[in-house]
Specification:
Layout (H helix, E strand, L loop, with lengths): L3 H6 L3 H13 L2 H10 L7 E7 L5 H14 L4 E5 L12 H7 L8 E5 L6 H18 L3 E7 L4 H8 L2 E6 L12 H6 L2 E4 L7 H14 L11 E3 L8 H16 L3 H32 L1 H11 L5 H15 L6
Parallel strand pairs: 1-4, 1-5, 2-3, 2-4, 5-6, 6-7
The structure holds guanosine-5'-diphosphate and magnesium ion.
């Protein structure tokens, strides 16, 4: 049994690490493994944890691992936050604390390289989640920093998105932009042992009340947590599982997974078409003459590219029906 995908299906952590590395590197062996794993990769509950740096996301993830392990669930963690103690740059104490689960054979923790473009990272992360699900991890926690497009992307790959905020940050620093409010399925005010928790809760409740919620829709709960003591963490786990159960009713989970599949298909189709068409464009005799004309400023690059592509598209009528 030398195929890494086969070994992943039997729960081999080392092979999962290897395949995720291939995925990050854009190595074709990653795609080969994903073809094999995809049919087995649809059964995990993917939970995104987002929020500003320092909000306590990693500490919460650590506490959630303990809580979920207590419920006999197998857990995978993907840390996309570049400041995550799961990845690099953490103070030693944090790092040691986070590693307490790494010897548990039912827990798999992996940081995702944050190099490359954001979209690329989102894809690699969702593919890594497929790998972990195929390995049998029943819950996959994805920690990501709530900056830029990040939170929207994590919401696309997660079934349940937990937005973590903390007391004492000004409204503008909370990073609770309209976008993050829209994507949150569960809201946690972490560091509830700090002063100012009531104000933050009031503020958040006010913002959530303005969020348009139709009847029969999910009402996002707002919870308080103290990550390092574990206070509120069982309730947080319950809220995530309740959200998953809600999605499971009336086929919402299937629909969410169908949309995920569609997104991957469309993105790949775009890439593969571009690659294939580019190869043909560069081989065509018109390419050299147009390139020469662009360089000599005899034609503008816009018209040149358009004319080459439309010439190829007209001749390329051999798509499968
Ligand atoms: N007082 C308090 N400190 C916390 C709590 N949760 C996390 N911290 C501390 O906040 C700091 C940042 O936590 P971390 O999990 O690395 O935040 P992240 O950047 O969001 O992943 C660490 O020193 C934690 O020990 C909490 O609930 N209360
Ligand atoms: Mg972190």
């Amino acid at each position: 049994m030398s195929d890494p995908a086969e070994r992943i299906l039997t729960g081999c952590h080392a092979s999962a690490g290897q395949v995720i590395r291939w995925i990050e590197d854009g190595d074709r062996r990653g795609v080969a493994a994903l073809k094999h794993l995809y049919p087995h990769g649809g059964h995990a509950h993917v939970i995104g944890i987002t929020g500003p740096p320092g909000a306590g996301k990693s500490t919460l993830v650590d506490a959630l691992i303990a809580e979920l392990r207590g419920r006999a669930l197998r857990v995978g963690v993907l840390a996309v936050d570049p400041s995550s103690p799961f990845s690099q740059g953490a103070v030693l104490g944090d790092r040691v604390r986070m590693q307490r689960h790494s010897t548990d054979p039912q827990v798999f923790i992996r940081s995702m390289a944050t190099r490359g473009c954001l979209g690329g990272l989102a894809r690699a992360t969702s593919e890594a989640a497929v790998v972990l699900a195929a390995m049998g991890q029943q819950v996959v926690l994805v920690e990501t920093v709530g900056v830029g497009q990040d939170e929207v992307e994590v919401a696309e790959l997660a079934h349940t998105t937990v937005v973590v905020s903390v007391p004492g940050l000004g409204d503008e620093v909370q990073a609770l932009k309209a976008g993050i409010l829209e994507v949150g399925d569960v809201f946690a005010i972490n560091k509830a042992d700090h002063p100012g928790c009531e104000d933050t809760e009031k503020h958040l409740r006010g913002m959530l009340a303005m969020r348009a919620v139709e009847p029969g829709c999910w009402q996002p709960p707002l919870l308080r947590t103290v990550a390092h003591s574990g206070e509120g963490v069982p309730e947080l786990a319950d809220a995530c599982i309740a959200h998953r159960d809600f999605l499971g009713e009336a086929g919402r989970l299937e629909e969410a997974d169908a949309r995920r599949g569609e997104r991957v298909f469309r993105a790949l189709l775009g890439e593969l078409c571009a690659e294939a068409l580019l190869a043909r464009a560069e081989e065509s005799p018109a390419h050299a003459s147009l390139l020469g004309a662009v360089r000599a400023r005899e034609i503008d690059p816009y018209s040149a590219a358009e004319s080459l592509v439309s010439a190829l598209a007209v001749r390329g009528g051999d798509a499968p029906r």
